Structures are given as C-alpha cells and as structure tokens.
Predict the 3D structure of the following.
Amino acid sequence: MPRHRRKMMEQSDTFIVAREAWKFLMAALAAYIVFLLTDLELLQFAAFAAAVLIIYIYRNPERIVPYYQNGSIVAFADGRVTAIETVDGCSAFEGPCYRVDIVSSSFDVSLLRAPFEAVVRRLKVRRGSRLSAHSALARKLNETALLQFEDEKGQRCAIEHMLNTSIDALSLHVHHEQRLMQGSRYGLLVRGCHSLYLPAASRVAVKVGDEVRAGQTLIGYFS
C-alpha cells in the first residue's frame, strides 16, 4: 500500500471516543470500582457521572464531507465564528488575507479535521499554559500550533490553534509533508481558539455568529 494512502487511513479512527480520553476514563472507572467496594454511593455517582462527561467531551462522531465544488474549504473545528477580518499577512501568505476566527467550547466535538485535501507543509507546536483566552498573556504563554496546508494546485491556507482553559493538552496526529483527505482527523483540542488564514482572493461562505461543524460546514472557496 502506498505510504500516503496508509497515512490517510490512520486518520479514519472511528472508535466511539478519541484515544486521548482513555487515561481519564480509566481513572474515573477505577475510582468508581473503589467507591463501589467501599459502599460510598455519592462518590460512586460522581465517578460514573465523570465517566459519562468524559465520553461526551471526547466523542468521536463519524462525519461524511458533503459534496462541494472543487476548491472548497470546510470547517476544521467545531465552534462558533467570532470574527472575519482582512489582515496584512500571516505565515502562509504575503500581503492581505482573510482571517476567520472560531471559538470552541468544552461541549463542542474536540476533533480537528483537514479543511481540504492537502499536504502539511508546515507544522509548529509550542507547549505552554492553559490560561483563559481573555488573559493578556494567553497569546504568549498558552499552548499553540501552526499548520500550513497546500494542495496539488499550490493553493494554501494556514491554521492557528490556541488552547484555552482546558482539561487536556493540544494533541496533533500528523507530521510534516503528510497528505490528508478533506475532513480527515488530524488532532484534538478541548476548548480553544482557532484562526484560519485564506488568500485575499478566496470567497468566504460563513458570517460572524455562525455555528460550524468540522468536516461538514462550508467555510469558503479558493478563487
């Protein structure tokens, strides 16, 4: 099997919860068993409720990308669009480009998905803190990731992820020069802020306040 096809298949994990949930689930279930054996009913309920909440937060739904015309860009994270602005530039482009900001809550699906079929041309992760996004120090200290995607036509976008106050670290399952199918999973972020940078000639199909679903909601098109 070709290497890039094998790597694509690795992103199609369809288990009910993401792999990052297991350490929390095992702890909650272990606590439940201990409280069950010691007949502490209130703590039994708390441990069981924690396990259910973990399953919900780390749920891993299977999603089929709708058919869109060539050049389509789909949402890479679940959440709400909070800003659409023209900025002077970013790591992927020189000159003006669009920036689409999305904020994800703890109850949005946490999986990150590729916005279009592309190769990961740049990947940079900075480990750090989990301050509130409203903190003046968040941009400097919080965990962040920068990815640049490029398709076979040379069309590019860049995505920045920043962890907000969260129960877990930012997790990425890709490497430099890996090819991804549109909508395939490439990481996980529980509660965070995301920025998508698109060329100025792109068409944006969402507006501020829209709720988006990773792998399904159309964000726009390359020109």
Observations:
- The two ends are 34 Å apart (CA to CA).
- The longest helix spans residues 41-57.
- The longest strand covers residues 79-87.
- The domain at 72-221 is CATH 2.70.70.10 (Glucose Permease (Domain IIA)).
